[in-house]
Amino acid sequence: MQRDLEGSIAVVAGATRGAGRGIAVALGERGATVYCTGRSVRGAIATAGRSETIDETAERVTAAGGRGIAVRVDHTREDEVRALFERVERESGRLDVLVNDVWGGDAKIDFGKAFWELDLAKSAGLIEQAVWSHVITSRHGAPLMLRASRGLIVEVTDGDSLSYRGNLVYDLVKTSVVRLAMGMGYELRRTGIATVAVTPGFLRSEAMLENFGVTEANWRDAIAKEPDFAVSETPMFVGRCIAALAADPSVKARSGRVYASWTLAREYDVRDVDGTRPDWGAHFASKYGPASPCGEAVYAEVNGGMFATVYPDWPKVSGQ
Q1: Which of 92, 154, 155, 200 is the most exposed place for a label (fewest CB within 10 A)?
Q2: pLDDT tens across 17-30, in order?
Q3: What Pfam families has UniProt attached to this entry (predicted)?
């Protein structure tokens, strides 16, 4: 693995598990120092039913070749976020990569319910946790980047199209963070800072593996139950794609857009931990059909190519 991020300083907000953990470790593989933030630490688990901690993530970053630093932060608390970046500035003096992956919303999503049946308190909490936290974090992280007029801000989303994501609030959250990448990119257009949104494919997160009753060692046993699982990817796959973006000296040209792990993997020659290159996009298109004419019109007229394509209705894969 290249060490082209050695000396770089990164913050991965929401690094406890899933994509956030994979992104943090992948940045470490390339030599970065990574502040791994989240609410669950050893002896104080914040998410019921989960055991992962940011301490474990930081240790994996170090084991991969970087330097992992665990910092407990509730990213909905501005005082805690401010203190995080004051610490980064004090200890490291710079910030090169900021990844917004705060989510933790699985318990707050009512899949199968129409919007007029939603629990509004849970829905409001999800918007605060998975969107507003990103705004707070970027607000306090960006000034560190602006001093050097360089860096990369990544919004982690679900899907690279305008297709509906199966639940009104879930859809609102995941499209909103794409819009954050676009809006921040516009406001940062005269700087050297790039902002992008990135989606994984069918992610083999800790929760997803448990849903299917398998582990990473025997995950293929779940394909009989869910054939789409055959093209799933580990959190390291999207992590390595984001690490490749961070190491790309021309990343500014990508600012304001949304990208998928499978497309970035082809462009940067990224492989998953088992040496494969999963392509959820190609699998999805072959199984559920190509983009609709409406989708092509949206692509051309609404977002200047920010979104890739719009597909017809498709089954939601949760647990990312």
Answers
A1: 92
A2: 999 999 999 999 99
A3: adh_short (PF00106)
